[in-house]
Structures are given as structure tokens and as C-alpha cells.
Fold this sequence. Notes:
This protein is α+β, with helices and mostly antiparallel strands. It has one domain.
Amino acid sequence: MPVPTEGPWLDEAAGRLIRPYTVSGGRTRPATALDLLTLVRATGTAPPPHLGPEHAQAVDLCRGPLSVAEVAAHLELPVTVTKVLLSDLMACGAITTRPPDSFDNPTDRFLLEAVLDGLRRQL
């Protein structure tokens, strides 16, 4: 389900009129610990109807594996809010998560070189 482009909760100039904390029901911490690189995938189970449209959008995005950061970017929501939504979806069985493949071996030379290159670019 794409992000709506019209309706009472959107303004052409301002964008989304619903505050992020409203989307997460005022919650600021997910029930499940999620990393930015955690991969998320839909299970095929529909989320319960009481969850908001952002939950359904997140499930739709996760037909293929996406990282938490990618889901947040597609939903145009802060990462913390996205983690709360994804935690809700995990609780109802609509998504599963797993660590990214590159972190299966934390001493992987490729991973360590990528981290080193990133640090060098920051300096």
C-alpha cells in the first residue's frame, strides 16, 4: 500500500499532518530491540485491523527483506517510530526479523574493511 498522496491528513505544502508520536500511539520505545540494519520480512499474515495504516504500509513494503532504516525511509517516519510500528507487527506475527547476512560473522574481513573505510571518510 503506497503512502497516501491526498486526503484530510496531508497538506500539499506541509506534507503529513499527523505527528509521528501519534502514529506510534505516543510510545517512544519498541517492545523488541531492533537495530537499523535488522532485516524485516512480511510473513503473509495480515496485521489486525486496529493497527493504523502505517502498519499496513510497512507490511506491504516488507514483501522482500528490507532493513529497519529502509522501512523508515520509505514510510518517511523517524526510525524510533518505525521501530515501534515494526515491534507491533512482530507481536502479531505479521513480520519476522533477522540480523543482516554480513553480520553472521562479526570478524568477516569484508565487514571490517568496510567499517575502516567508513571511519576514514569521516576523518
